[in-house]
Structure formats: C-alpha cells, structure tokens
C-alpha cells in the first residue's frame, strides 16, 4: 500500500472520537425509540391512533427540519452545533425522567429529542467529511454510517433491559448524554471542521436551504427510504405468529450489525462504481429481500433481512456520495437535504405502504404485499433512469 493511500485510510484522533460519539448517541436514542409507542400510550392514556399522530409529528420535525438545522450548524460552527445537540438530548432525557406523571412533559421530551437529532445528524456527518477529498469520502461516510448503525443495533438491547423500569432507563440516558456533552466540550476538532461561525461555504438565508440540491440522489433517496421503511415498519407485524419475538429481535439486530460491517468493507468499491450500477445492485438486493419475506418462515425472513442489509448498505452509501458530488452546497447542508429526502420517503411509506398493507391484510393474502413491494424495487432503477434520459433530451 502506498504512503498516500495509507494516509487516506487513516482516521484522525478527532474523527475516531466523533465516531465513538455517534455510536453512543444512537445507543441512547434507540434504547428509547423502539418502545416509545408503549411509553406514550401508558403515560398519555390514549389509543394507538393518537400515539401515531404524536410520533408522526415528531418524526416530521426531525426529518423536515434537517435542512434548516444543517444551515444553522454552518453558521454557529459544527463543533458548537454538536455540543448544543448533546445538551438538548440531555435535556430531553431529564424531561422524560420528570414526566412520569405529567403527559405534557413526555410529549415535550419527545420533541426535544427529535430536535436534537435533527441538529446532531447533519453536523456529525459534516464534521467527518467537511475537508475530505473525493477519495476519502467513501471511507468516512461509510465509517460514520457504521458507527451509527452499531448504536442502532445496541440501543434496543439496552432498552429491553429496562423496559419495565423506564425511570432507570431515562436516568441512564441522562448520564450518557451528560458525559457526551462534556466530551464534545473538550473535543478539539481540526480547523477544517469549520468550528468558526459562518465558516462553511454557501451560508445563505434559511429560506434557500434547498438551493443547490442534487436532484437525482435526492429522488433516489426518497424512493430508497419509501421502500426500506416498509420493511422496517411492517415486517414486525407480519412476523407475529410466524417466528418468536426474540428471534425477530436477533434478526433485526443482525441487520444493523450487517450494515455496520458491510459499508466500510465496500466503501471504496461503491465510491468508484457508477450510480446506475449501484442502483441496480442495491434495488435488486432489496427486491430479493422483499420477495423472500413472502415465504413467511423464519429461514426466508432471515434470508430476506440479509439481502436487505446488502442492498441498503450499497444504496445508503452511494446516495450520500452522489449527493456530495452533485451538490453545490457544503457537506453539512447536503446531509441535511438528504435527511429531508429520507423523511419524505418515510412519510410516503407510512401513508401509501400502510394503506396497501391494510388491503392485503383484509384480503388475507399478506405475502402478496411483499411481492408487490419487491416489484416496485425491481422497477425503480429503469424508471428513474428513463425519466432522467427524457429530462435531459428536453
């Protein structure tokens, strides 16, 4: 290996510290997130329909607000934005802890946590990639995603230990976020991390946060998350009665761990291949995974989740790399725009996917739902590329 390649593959101390923080933040977040529906139902004393409205509004705040929080992070400095986000995370955990008998505080805590996530995610990825060369970006984006996915995998396991003692859970997350806030305070990022207010390129009025949008990766990210969230949201319901709850938990943990391992391994190759090829490989794997779910047996569900892990590992990484390459804005704002795309896709999944799932459920042919989603996965690459060619001719 050449000395130049070795330097490209070497993470700095600050980058390693950021990766550790990204993993810890998601561990704390996903120790709570999978159990929010139960928590809100118990504390608010309402039905699941009302709980769904609250969760949907909070998710909308988190994703739709990302371009604005990314632009805000550009202005105040990325390190300051990370410190502020961890402080808000800590405040949200304290509010959860104190809101056991006060429903309004529980809802406030949820929105504080979502607001913190909206600020932390683009600033975190912006810090990792702000000064990176085109050759360094695949490794850094993959490393950031891997650290996040490791936290997503570990968080539910931690939360399950305290599922029936939420006060102990929130006390633990309060301590975790307090430690992270102190750690971010003492973290000394390189100057290239844009710690000076307004140092980031493209600092413009907030109403122009979508200026310079890389349209194709934005659209493909919307479609990726529209299809991916149908797997993430509806497989748990489909699996009830088909495999034990513990087995489902292990399989889903394996999915997140698969992402954490696969993305760094394929980062350079995914960075080099053309976007149409990455789309074809990624959506083909997703189609295979969705079709495998239709089998409804533990073995087919496990195979489907493994295929989804490969497909989303390629697509999540390549979509972000293509957005960074095609955007006229800074890395931080670009990641905010990509997070908005993920939110739009998740919203479509909830509205359209839920309706279609209900239709197949009432007809008692639920395997047909997964075959329908698989067909959509197979159709996305040729349709998107055909529309792109037609728009270029016009």
Automatic annotation (TrEMBL):
* Entries under PROSITE patterns matching the protein: PROKAR_LIPOPROTEIN (PS51257)
* One protein family per Pfam: MFS_1
Q: Where are the transmembrane segments?
A: 16-38, 44-65, 77-96, 102-121, 142-163, 169-187, 208-228, 248-266, 273-293, 299-319, 340-360, 366-387
Membrane topology designation: Multi-pass membrane protein
Q: What is its main location?
A: membrane
Q: What do the Gene Ontology cellular component annotations say? A: plasma membrane
Q: Where does this one sit in the cell?
A: Cell membrane
InterPro entries in the record, alphabetically? MFS (IPR011701), MFS_trans_sf (IPR036259), MFS_Transporters (IPR050171)
Alphabetized GO MF terms: transmembrane transporter activity
* Keyword list, A-Z: Cell membrane, Membrane, Transmembrane, Transmembrane helix, Transport
Q: What is this protein called?
A: Arabinose efflux permease, MFS family
């Amino acid at each position: 290996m050449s000395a130049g390649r070795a330097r490209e593959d070497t993470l700095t101390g600050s980058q390693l510290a950021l990766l550790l923080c990204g993993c810890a933040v998601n561990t704390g977040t996903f120790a709570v997130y999978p159990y929010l529906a139960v928590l809100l139902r118990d504390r608010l004393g309402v039905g699941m329909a009302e709980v769904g409205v609250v969760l949907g509004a909070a998710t909308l705040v988190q994703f739709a607000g990302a371009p604005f929080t990314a632009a805000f992070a550009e202005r105040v400095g990325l390190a300051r934005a990370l410190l502020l986000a961890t402080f808000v995370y800590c405040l949200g955990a304290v509010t959860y802890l104190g809101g056991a008998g006060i429903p309004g505080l529980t809802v406030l805590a949820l929105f504080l946590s979502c607001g913190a996530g909206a600020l932390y995610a683009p600033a975190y990825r912006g810090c990792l990639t702000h000064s990176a060369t085109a050759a360094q970006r695949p490794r850094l984006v993959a490393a950031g995603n891997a650290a996040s996915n490791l936290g997503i995998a570990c968080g539910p396991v931690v939360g399950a230990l305290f599922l029936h003692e939420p006060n102990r859970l929130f006390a633990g997350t309060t301590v975790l976020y307090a430690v992270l806030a102190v750690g971010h305070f003492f973290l000394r990022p390189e100057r290239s991390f844009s710690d000076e207010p307004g140092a980031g390129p493209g600092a413009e009025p907030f109403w122009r946060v979508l200026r310079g949008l890389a349209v194709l990766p934005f659209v493909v990210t919307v479609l990726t998350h529209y299809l991916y969230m149908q797997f993430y949201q509806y497989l748990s319901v489909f699996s009830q009665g088909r495999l034990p709850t513990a087995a489902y938990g292990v399989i889903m943990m394996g999915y997140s761990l698969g992402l954490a391992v696969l993305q760094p391994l394929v980062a350079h190759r995914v960075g080099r291949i053309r976007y149409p090829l990455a789309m074809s490989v990624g959506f083909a794997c997703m189609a295979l995974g969705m079709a495998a779910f239709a089998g409804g047996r533990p073995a087919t569900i496990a195979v489907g989740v493994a295929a989804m892990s490969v497909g989303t590992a390629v697509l999540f990484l390549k979509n972000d790399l293509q957005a960074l390459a095609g955007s006229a804005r800074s890395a931080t704002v670009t990641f905010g725009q990509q997070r908005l795309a993920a939110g739009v896709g998740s919203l479509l999944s909830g509205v359209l996917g839920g309706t279609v799932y209900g239709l197949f459920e009432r007809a008692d042919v639920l395997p047909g739902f997964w075959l329908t989603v698989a067909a959509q996965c197979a159709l996305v690459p040729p349709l998107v590329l055909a529309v792109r060619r037609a728009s270029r001719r016009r």
